[in-house]
Amino acid sequence: MEEAGRHAVFIWSAYGATTLIALGLVIRAVLDHRAQRRALARLEAAGAVPPGRKAARG
């Protein structure tokens, strides 16, 4: 890393910040996906019908 010289701290800080932000976005997406699946399960249990499907008549 000698080529970077005096800019090494800035470069490694930028890499670190980018990695943390990317990981945060992935974690947020996974948690949101889980929450959406739970919400969908609750709606389906309550009898909600997804768009494009006809309600069962009985």
From TrEMBL:
Its main location: membrane. It comes from the Bacteria. GO terms for cellular component: plasma membrane. GO terms for biological process: cytochrome complex assembly; heme transport. It is found in: Cell inner membrane. The chain crosses the membrane at residues 12-31. Belongs to the CcmD/CycX/HelD family. This is Heme exporter protein D. It comes from Enterovirga aerilata.
